Write a sequence for this structure.
C-alpha cells in the first residue's frame, strides 16, 4: 500500500485543487513550470539536494543539485532572452539526453518560450516538417546533430537562431552561435516569466493516420495533472531515486522525465547510452534506484535476456515499477513480479492527454494485462464505435474517451482547429478549441479501442486507426509513405505495422517500382537507409514487399487497411467497407 491513500478514498469528493496541496502551493505564487521545478525547490531549502544523476556512454557520470538546475536553467533563460527571443516563441530542443537538454527545457519555460523537444534520432525531413509547422524561432542542438539542421535551414525562414550547446566551438558555420551553460558566467537570478494557467508551455508533435504530424500544444497549468499523478501513481516521495527511461523527445520524457518529478523535488536519474540488460541493471544498482517508469518493449527485451543478468545485480533498492506506451502483456507483469518481486503497473495516456488517464493505482488489486482504472478526477468511458454513446454493458469493445477539462489536456493542435474539433464526439460545428476543452457534454475520443470489465478495469484492444506503434513510439504511415515515394525507384507505397515479438510492431512497406527498376537486395537496403536518414530509425521499414501494383479503392486510394489485415491474418471483410474511409 502506498502512502497516498486508497483509490476509493481518493475518488471521494475529488478536486484537482488537491494538486496544489500536494505541491504545498499557495495562491498567488508564480505558476511557471521552469520556476516551480527549480527556484521553488531551492526556496524550500533543497538547493543542495541532488536533482539529476546523469550517466552517458563509457563511464561518464555527472550529478547536479537543484541549485545547479536553478542556475543552469537561469543561464539558458537569460541567454535566450539576450538573443532577442520572446515569450511565446517556439524554441526547439534537439539533442541527446545530455544534461543541457534538461537545463534548456526548464530555461525555455522560465523565459516564457514554448519548449519544442524533438527526438535526436530524427532525420532532416522529420525535423523540417515539425519546425516548419511550429514556425520555430530557435533551435538548441549539439555539434553531432547540427548537420541535419544545416541541410534544411534555407527552407525554414522563421528559424533565426541555431544554437550549439556542446562540442567544438571552432567548427560552427554561418550564423550559428555557441553557448556552453556550464562554462558561461553563473546567472544567480532570473525573474521567471509571469505566466497564466493558459500560457503555452510545451509543444509535442504526434503522428496520425493521414497528413503530417500534429503539434499538441500544452500549457503551464498542465503541471497540476503531472505533479498529482507523479505523486499518486508513481508514488514519488522525497527520498526516492527515480528513473524514467523515456527520451524527452516524447511526452513521457517531459511529463514524467522532467515536470512531474522535479515539481515534487525528487532526484532523477538519466541514462544516455544504448540499451543492454546488464547496463540497465548496473545503473539501477549503482544509483540505488527506487522507482522505475519504463515501457513494455524495454521490459520484453529484459525478459528475453532472462534472469541471469537480474541475479548478477543487487536490485533490492527498487520499490515501485510502472509502464506506459504500449499494451503491457500479462506475461510481462507476472515475470516482473517473479524476478523483481514487484509487478510493473500499467498506465495509459497520450501526448494529447499530457498526463496519465488510466492506471493501476498503487494498492489496487492488479489484473495482469489490464490498464487499470481512470485516475480520480478523470471521467472515462468506452463509446460505441458507431453511435459514440457510452457502452454500459461489460466487456464490449468501444472507443476510449474522456470528458474534457482535466488540467494537462492539450489545448490545440497547432494551426489545425478542424482536426482538434474532430477529436471531440458531439462537437458543434465551428466550435473553437477553448469551447471544446471545457465542454463537459462532449467526449474527447482517444483513437484507441478497449473494453471495461464488470469490476471497472480497462482492457486495451488496439488502435482505431493505422498509426504504427513501434517500441512505444507512434509513427505515422503517411509520413513514411510520403518519404518512400521520394526514393528514385518507388512509384507507389503503403506503410503498415507488422507484428513483432519485442517491439509490438515494426514498419513494413509495400512498394511498386518505377519502370527500369527491379527488386534486389541492394535496392532494399537503399530504401531502408533512405527512410532511416530522412525520418528516423523508428520509421525505417524492417521489411519491404514489392508489388506490381498496390491495391486501391475505385477512387484510386491505396488500401492500406487491406494490406494490414492480410499481414495480421485478420478477416479482410467486405472490401467495399474499406472504400475511402
Ligand atoms: O495507442 C495508445 C498507446 O500509445 C498511444 C499514445 O502514444 P503517445 O501519444 O506517443 O504517448 C505515449 C506515452 C504516453 C495511445 O493512444 N498507449 C499508451 N499507453 C498505453 C498504450 N497502449 C496500450 N497500453 C498502454 N498502457
Amino acid at each position: 500500500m502506498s502512502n497516498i491513500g486508497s483509490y476509493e478514498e481518493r475518488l471521494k469528493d475529488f478536486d484537482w485543487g488537491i494538486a496544489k496541496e500536494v505541491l504545498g502551493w499557495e495562491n498567488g505564487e508564480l505558476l511557471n513550470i521552469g520556476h516551480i521545478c527549480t527556484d521553488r525547490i531551492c526556496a524550500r531549502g533543497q538547493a543542495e539536494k541532488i536533482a539529476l544523476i546523469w550517466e552517458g556512454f563509457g563511464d561518464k557520470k555527472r550529478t547536479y543539485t537543484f541549485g545547479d538546475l536553478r542556475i543552469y536553467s537561469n543561464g539558458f533563460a537569460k541567454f535566450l532572452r539576450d538573443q532577442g527571443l520572446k515569450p511565446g516563441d517556439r524554441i526547439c530542443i534537439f539533442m541527446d539526453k545530455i544534461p543541457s537538454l534538461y537545463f534548456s527545457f526548464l530555461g525555455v519555460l522560465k523565459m516564457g518560450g514554448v519548449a519544442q523537444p524533438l527526438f535526436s534520432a530524427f532525420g532532416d525531413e522529420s525535423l523540417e516538417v515539425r519546425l516548419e509547422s511550429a514556425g520555430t524561432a530557435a533551435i538548441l542542438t549539439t555539434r553531432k546533430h547540427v548537420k541535419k539542421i544545416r541541410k534544411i535551414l534555407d527552407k525554414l525562414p522563421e528559424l533565426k537562431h541555431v544554437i550549439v550547446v556542446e562540442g567544438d566551438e571552432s567548427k560552427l558555420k554561418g550564423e550559428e552561435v555557441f553557448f556552453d551553460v556550464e562554462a558561461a558566467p553563473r546567472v544567480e537570478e532570473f525573474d521567471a516569466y509571469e505566466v497564466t494557467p493558459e500560457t503555452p508551455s510545451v509543444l509535442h508533435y504526434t503522428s496520425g493516420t493521414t497528413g503530417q504530424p500534429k503539434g499538441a500544444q500544452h500549457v503551464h497549468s498542465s503541471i497540476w495533472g503531472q505533479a498529482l499523478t507523479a505523486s499518486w501513481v508513481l508514488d514519488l516521495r522525497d527520498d526516492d531515486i527515480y528513473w524514467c527511461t523515456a527520451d524527452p523527445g516524447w511526452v513521457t520524457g517531459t511529463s514524467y522525465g522532467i515536470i512531474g518529478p522535479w515539481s515534487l523535488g525528487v532526484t532523477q536519474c538519466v541514462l544516455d547510452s544504448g540499451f543492454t540488460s546488464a547496463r540497465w541493471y548496473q545503473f539501477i544498482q549503482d544509483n540505488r534506484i527506487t522507482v522505475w517508469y519504463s515501457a513494455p518493449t524495454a521490459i520484453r527485451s529484459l525478459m528475453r535476456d532472462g534472469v541471469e543478468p537480474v541475479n548478477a545485480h543487487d536490485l533490492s533498492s527498487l520499490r515501485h515499477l510502472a509502464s506506459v506506451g504500449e499494451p503491457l502483456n500479462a506475461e510481462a507483469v507476472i515475470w516482473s513480479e517473479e524476478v523483481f518481486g514487484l509487478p510493473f503497473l500499467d498506465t495509459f495516456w497520450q501526448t494529447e492527454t499530457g498526463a496519465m488517464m488510466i492506471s493501476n493505482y498503487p494498492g489496487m488489486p492488479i489484473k495482469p494485462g489490464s490498464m487499470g482504472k481512470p485516475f480520480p478526477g478523470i471521467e472515462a468511458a468506452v463509446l460505441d464505435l458507431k453511435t459514440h454513446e457510452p457502452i454500459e454493458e461489460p466487456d464490449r469493445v468501444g472507443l476510449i474517451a474522456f470528458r474534457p477539462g482535466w488540467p494537462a489536456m492539450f489545448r490545440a493542435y497547432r494551426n489545425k482547429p478542424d482536426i482538434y474539433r474532430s477529436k471531440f464526439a458531439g462537437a458543434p460545428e465551428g466550435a473553437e478549441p477553448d469551447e471544446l476543452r471545457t465542454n463537459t457534454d462532449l467526449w474527447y475520443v482517444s483513437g484507441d479501442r478497449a473494453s471495461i470489465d464488470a469490476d471497472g478495469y480497462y482492457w486495451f484492444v488496439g488502435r482505431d486507426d493505422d498509426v504504427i506503434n513501434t517500441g512505444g513510439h507512434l509513427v505515422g504511415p503517411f509520413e513514411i509513405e510520403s518519404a518512400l515515394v521520394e526514393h528514385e525507384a518507388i512509384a507507389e507505397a503503403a506503410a503498415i505495422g507488422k507484428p513483432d515479438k519485442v517491439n509490438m510492431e515494426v514498419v513494413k512497406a509495400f512498394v511498386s517500382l518505377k519502370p527500369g527498376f527491379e527488386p534486389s537486395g541492394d535496392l532494399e537496403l537503399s530504401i531502408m537507409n533512405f527512410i532511416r536518414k530522412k525520418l528516423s530509425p523508428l520509421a525505417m521499414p524492417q521489411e519491404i514487399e514489392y508489388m506490381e501494383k498496390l491495391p486501391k479503392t475505385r477512387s484510386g486510394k491505396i488500401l492500406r487497411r487491406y494490406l494490414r489485415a492480410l499481414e495480421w491474418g485478420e478477416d479482410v471483410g467486405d472490401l467495399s467497407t474499406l472504400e475511402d474511409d
